[in-house]
């Protein structure tokens, strides 16, 4: 368990959430994580279909070791309650159907539970669930499909990002440096990014550019400035 600033406050101050695989192909997980945390990622999830639980726990342990040197950094377990229990997770991301109440019974008292939401109804359900701490909303840009900026707009209406009493949410799905402004205009103030950082020639530099966009966005938004003071 991480013993630093309260987990809830760290979640509420988070702006950039990065999802990566275990980077077995390049065998550079530790260096990658160090670069991305140094570049400004607040949360990092390791997600890889088919990876054995023991290998996933080992990868998460590497992430936790790196995050120890980055005060705000949160390590996120993706979907697997068994892995979350073995790892002693501070943050678990669930899909739209898994039981948050069941996860709450397994995780430690202060753990955070996120929920992926792909429709307005799923957003509403996640916001209403007392065991859910935050929501990921998307996919915004899907391969071969039209952008779903209306879903982002819906989330912004029912869970205004500047509401200290509300649940934080992150827009995800095909977000790049080129289209991020569209997502911001639709109402998002937090991003979950994968490929645009993970596949970048310089992941740390890519992370820095996303974080700079988010920093400028929060600084120019009076509601987010008030939000910061409210959280702190």
What does this 3D model show about the protein?
With 232 residues, the protein is α/β, with parallel strands linked by helices. Helices cover 45% and strands 15% of the residues. It is built from eleven helices and eight strands. It has an eight-stranded parallel barrel, surrounded by eight helices. The model has no long low-confidence stretch (mean pLDDT 95).
What characteristics describe this protein?
single chain; eight-stranded parallel barrel; alpha/beta; 232 residues
Could you give the topology of this structure?
Elements: H1 7-13, E1 16-20, H2 29-39, E2 43-46, H3 53-67, E3 74-78, H4 81-87, E4 91-94, H5 100-106, E5 112-117, H6 120-128, E6 134-137, H7 149-158, E7 169-172, H8 180-186, E8 191-193, H9 195-198, H10 203-220, H11 222-231
Helix pairs in contact: 2-3, 2-10, 3-4
Helix fraction bin: 40-55%
Spans of 5+ residues with little confidence (pLDDT < 50)?
none
- By secondary-structure content and strand pairing, the structural class works out as alpha/beta
Q: What is the beta-strand fraction?
A: 15-25%
Note the main sheet. Answer: 8 strands, parallel, barrel
- Succession of helices and strands: HEHEHEHEHEHEHEHEHHH
Would you tell me the overall average pLDDT? 95
């Amino acid at each position: 368990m991480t013993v630093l600033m309260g987990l809830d406050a760290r979640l509420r101050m988070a702006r950039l959430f990065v999802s990566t695989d275990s980077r077995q192909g390049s065998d550079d997980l530790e260096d990658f994580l160090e670069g991305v945390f140094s570049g400004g990622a607040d949360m990092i999830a390791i997600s890889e279909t088919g990876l054995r639980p023991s290998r996933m726990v080992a990868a998460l342990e590497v992430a936790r070791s790196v995050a120890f040197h980055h005060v705000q950094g949160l390590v996120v377990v993706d979907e697997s309650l068994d892995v979350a229990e073995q790892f002693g997770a501070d943050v678990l991301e669930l899909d739209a159907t898994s039981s948050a109440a069941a996860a709450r019974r397994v995780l430690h008292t202060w753990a955070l539970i996120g929920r992926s939401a792909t429709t307005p109804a799923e957003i509403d359900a996640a916001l209403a669930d007392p065991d859910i701490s935050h929501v990921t909303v998307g996919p915004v840009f899907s391969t071969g499909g039209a952008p779903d900026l209306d879903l982002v707009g819906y989330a912004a209406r029912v869970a205004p990002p500047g509401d200290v009493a509300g649940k934080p949410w992150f827009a995800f799905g095909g977000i790049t440096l080129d289209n991020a402004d569209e997502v911001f205009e639709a109402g998002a103030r937090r991003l979950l990014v994968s490929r645009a950082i993970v596949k970048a020639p310089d992941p740390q530099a890519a992370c820095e550019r996303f974080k700079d966009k988010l920093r400028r966005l929060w600084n120019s938004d009076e509601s987010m400035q008030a939000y910061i003071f409210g959280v702190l």
